[in-house]
Specification:
Largest sheet: 5 strands, mixed
Strand order of the largest sheet: 3-2-1-4-5
Oligomer: single chain
Order of helices and strands: EEEHEE
Shape: elongated
Structural class: alpha+beta
Number of helices: 1
Number of domains: 1
Number of strands: 5
Distance between the termini: 29 Å
């Protein structure tokens, strides 16, 4: 089973939110902050990994909203 991912990446018109493996953007925004807010909500609804890329395409941050392949083991 492959994990579901949601990505925020650069787009010619600003920033885009995409599902991993998709060719089309879910949403395109002017600002990265707006794309992150939309992407986080979308990722939480899909229970997917949320990956934020920089202008150069490299991963800057990642959050898990379910489906974490290495969940925390501590039970505090």
């Amino acid at each position: 089973m492959s994990r579901k991912t949601t990505h925020v990446t650069p787009h010619k018109d600003g920033w885009q939110v995409k599902s991993g493996g998709s060719d089309r953007a879910y949403r395109v925004t002017k600002t990265k902050a707006e794309a992150e807010a939309i992407g986080r909500s979308f990722s939480q609804g899909r229970e997917s990994e949320f990956i934020i890329h920089g202008r150069d395409g490299k991963i800057q941050r990642a959050d898990s909203h379910g489906g974490d392949p290495f969940p925390p083991r501590d039970k505090k």
